[in-house]
Amino acid sequence: MFGLEKAAGQQKPGRSGGLPKMASVGDFNVLSSSIPATKVELSVSCRNLLDRDTFSKSDPICVLYTQAIGNKEWREFGRTEVIDNTLNPDFVRKFIMDYFFEERENLRFDFYDVDSKSPNLSKHDFLGQMFCTLGEIVGSQGSRLEKSIVGIPGKKCGTVIVTAEELGCCRDSVLMQFCANKLDKKDFFGKSDPFLVFLRSNEDGSFTICHKTEVVKNTLNPVWQAFKISVRALCNGDYDRTIKVEVYDWDRDGSHDFIGEFTTSYRELSRGQSQFNVYEVINPKKKGKKKKYINSGTVTLLSFLIETEVSFLDYIKGGTQINFTVAIDFTASNGNPSQPTSLHYMNPYQLNAYGMALKAVGEIIQDYDSDKMFPALGFGARLPPDGRVSHEFALNGNPQNPYCHGIDGVMEAYYRSLKSVQLYGPTNFAPVINHVARYAASVKDGSQYFVLLIITDGVISDMAQTKESIVNASKLPMSIIIVGVGPAEFDAMEELDGDVVRISSRGKFAERDIVQFVPFRDYIDRSGNHVLSMARLAKDVLAEIPEQFLSYMRVRGIKPLPAPPPYTPPIHVLQTQI
Fold it and tell me: Any idea where the C2 domain is (predicted)?
């Protein structure tokens, strides 16, 4: 067994000879290139959707797809929540996207009427779709795009309204709790079933929904559960922006009765529990009709607690080390390396598919690894001299010290291995995952975090064992990036990614999502030897790592250490002889 921990005082070998520069992926600086122009939040509403339910209205969900820049494949980006019994949904769950102003980002919004708990969209009724670009939304008047929903011939499918708002950089969240007193009774046979809806105001005077509380059944004096919301979602960091709160009586058929409303702001709420934060709930229609009308009850703020969210960079600045390990698929399904059709083809003039992916992705991740020494493993090959099959061998041939200096060192070891090992099989991921997990299990104090980069053609033999390894690893300070090369269907890799359905093994679910899958073909041109957008590849490869990292630290209650003071060179006092 060989380790990821470097022996104390061990000398780092010097930079090895390196490979000739072949297919270029361009000089790349992770801190400048991978930071997109801005983050935008998309809010989606629909009007007059198709009604597919016989005895009630549709239960809509919106699914957003983005288009790969290489082969133009549509990939699911995310889903809103399902809203029961309505043809005019205002979805609360937002899509937060990076806006690269220099690139055309094609979007597709699909709408479904959800009929069961199945995550499989083919099990639900299609309600239509809308195509646009992110630039089209951002560039519309007030960044508000209204378009017809299409996709069902001969039917009017309604309209969709998508609003974009650039997100501020405020990192605070607030934990708030509210109660109400003497709300209007709306139900004939019982009391009301009240819930609150929070909306933030927009520049043009319209409002965007940002939170819904739970429903408290059969009471005019509800106490709602405390809820946490980011200040960005509540008011986009503008403390004086109007926040409107609407009070409703829940009805099963979706036609919730309006009780009344009030307005406030973050600045007012931040005063906490006080006489300033008792609000009269006003129903404007009732107020206009009845002279003696006072209010429809009151809502009181019970508590207000500000929490500053720590970021990935806070931990890095505080000294947390990121350790990357690279594992490469040497199985026979990749094709014979002497043949041009092989993903491992040893072409003297340009990088093969694995070399391209390794160099492009490696140059992105090495900026986050402080010592630039990468353990590099291979799996699924027969090794000399006796032809035994190994699922975790050192690419540099040294099991005691599998470290390669920088990505160039990994590339050199990879090409050397190709000449000496025989591609074989089966394709087992579990051994390399368990290998990194053993080291992650020994350092759980937040001082180190481990990232395993697996480059593969996507054909996997040990799916059950891999799922079990991932479920076990989800409790450890580690993440897995899988980069798929070649033209295969990557259904198994998408399943491991766990973005749509959390991965499970033997009835146990992963504690957190730790796998990010990226199909490399989405980022290269048709010739297969040029990366179209290093910035987008960088974003997608690293997209989930900060949140996965933070989820581990949060669950374990590990706070970042303070950053060391900036270095100041010692002052040399020049002594002059008299």
Answer: 20-147, 156-279
pTM of the model: 0.66
**DSSP strands (E only) in 88-155:** 95-99, 106-113, 125-133, 144-148
What is the pairing mode between strands 278-280 and 298-308?
antiparallel
Is 73 part of a structural domain of the chain?
Answer: yes
Record the tokens describing residue 251, joined without a space: 């009805």
**Look-up of token digits 């990010």:** 516
Strands 321-329 and 298-308: unpaired
Between CA 281 and CA 215 the distance in angstroms is 17
Give the percent of the chain with pLDDT over 90: 58
Torsion of CA 2, 5, 10, 14, to 10 degrees: 80
How many helices (H) and strands (E) are present in the chain, helices listed first? Answer: 13, 28
Given 281, 308, 335, the domain boundary residue is 308
Are the C-beta atoms of residues 407 and 361 closer than 8 Å to each other?
A: no
Q: Kindly state whether residues 153 and 237 are assigned to the same domain.
A: no
Confidence of residue 121 (pLDDT cuts 50, 70, 90): very high
* Overall size of the chain counted in residues: 578
Query: Which tens digits make up the pLDDT trace of 281-322?
Result: 999 999 988 889 999 999 999 999 998 878 887 887 788 888
Question: What are the angstrom distances between the C-alpha of 62 and each of 54, 164, 327, 505?
Answer: 21, 16, 37, 29
Beta strands 278-280; 403-405: pairing state: unpaired
Best-predicted range by mean pLDDT among 9-13, 28-32, 362-366, 399-403?
399-403
290 and 179 share a domain?
A: yes
| One domain for residues 376 and 283 | no
**What CATH number is associated with residue 389?**
3.40.50.410
Residues 392 and 488 occupy one common structural domain:
yes
315 is a domain residue: no
Structural domain contains residue 252:
yes
Task: Give the residue ranges of DSSP H helices in 298-405.
Answer: 312-317, 353-365
Question: Which residue segment(s) compose the domain that 362 sits in?
Answer: 324-556
Tokens of 450: 């481990």
Whether the predicted pLDDT of 200 surpasses 90: yes
If residue 419 lies in a helix (H) or strand (E), which one and from where to where?
helix 406-420
| Separation CA 505–CA 469 (nearest Å) | 9
- Residue 249 gets which letter from DSSP? E
Structural domain count of the chain: 3
